[in-house]
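Q: Convert this sequence to structure tokens.
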Amino acid sequence: MNPRSRFLAATLTCLIGASSLAAPGVAHAAARCGPNVVDPLAEAPWPLTRLRPDLAWPLSTGVGVKVAVIDSGVSANHPALAGKVLPGHDFLTDANGSNGNEDNRTDNDNGGNANGDGRDGDDDRDGNGNDGDGNGNDGDGIGNGSDAGGSDGNGNDDGAGSDDNGDGSGSDADSNGDGSGDSNGDDNGDDNGNGNANGNGDVGDGDDGGADGSGDGAGLSVRGGGDGGCDENGHGTLIAGIIAGGETVSSGFRFHGVAPGARIVPIRVLRDQRRSVEPGLSGDIADAIRLAVDEFDADVINLSLTTPPTAELAAAVAHAIDERVVVVAAAGNTGESGVESGRPTYPAAYPGVLAVASVNAEDRHVASSTAGDFVDVAAPGERIAGPAPAGGGYLFSAEGGTSFATGYVSGVAALIRAYDRGLSPAEVADRIVRTADHPSDLWNAEVGHGVVNPVRAVGALDAPAAAAAGEQSVRNAPPPPSPLGAVSTTAVVVAVLGVALALLILAAVPIVRRGRRRAWRAAGR
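A:
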């Protein structure tokens, strides 16, 4: 197989019921933390030549901005991402690091009464569901498939699991399924909101944020564990590289992200890029958005995915925007299950979200990019290269997709947000669409307001607050002197003198003629 086409050519078999990222399937065999790729860049990444984000770097590189990438995880192993990936959250891995069967989203996700995972609304933790109750499925990070309390035969599972303690110890002192011992079954333990240690995914910021909704309500209950640094697919890592990758050189070709000063917060909700209509996935994405806002203080959220719309998802997006977080989402790829041209896709079509279409190297709309009246802007989305999760090489997608285009726009949003933190999400979006390279009709359903223009989007700002973020502020810098200034001044003087001389000559002509006729004699003689 051509090594440059190894990325996104086949799909991984996954246990979550799958999802849709806005790009085609993947090409590497399943790995614990992603495909090991050593392939160098085979050509210069054309999007960087087309967009030239580096021209905006004297104004902003994105320093101080956190971009949450809700995707397949982000690996920090590649040199382009070294030191740029912060700890995040993994919805697919429990606190023990288990990557077992997480298919626990077949329930209604109404918040649950389980005192443990807060996600399964219908199953009462009765020992027969797919919720990590000791039957080996370990879906919500409650147990590790063995449930140290003897699989909790009484069906209560109120703290008996091997890591369902609430205190992060990974061992329930009583383990009799009645919630006694360290966990008390109600997540009272020592859960101070560390996010990963407590097995039940209670990422709170206070005592007993409550997987069961009890306590002081300060925390957000989510399932899973881990920091989001495992990317079995490669998609999330590539997106992160597009957004904030540092400068690297491969086979003589330069690679970098749009906003290399920004930092990435990975939130893993997906294993591969296939679409699923299961409502639980939208619930996980909604939880991931809230987590990004409330726990990780994200400034920008990148959603290179599509998923069925739900009230929970809409509310999470609205919450992010209310908290002044810029939300950027892929318009989707026509032909994927549930994606039709002209019909809105979500979360891109929600109010306040920047919906991104894709173009090719000729600035033409990519045929697979979903068109519709919700499309705001476009960016490169074909023949895309970026860092691989392992091996130090580069993944390549010939087909591309709106996923990757979304990364470029999120990078521009990070540049703007770092340059002027006073702008609201609506003002950041307005800046991006108004400064885009507009199509002839100014807006259309295929590319929205046109291709994003990083340097113009940042440089057109009126009130930068870059100094507060450690950026160089050039708002009051005088324009550089023109190297032709002296020449220009001389030219003006010569032109004025030339005009004056011409007028004198014209005035002298009749005088000379009259003088000759009179033989230069005085008048009256």
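The first helix runs from residue 46 to 51.
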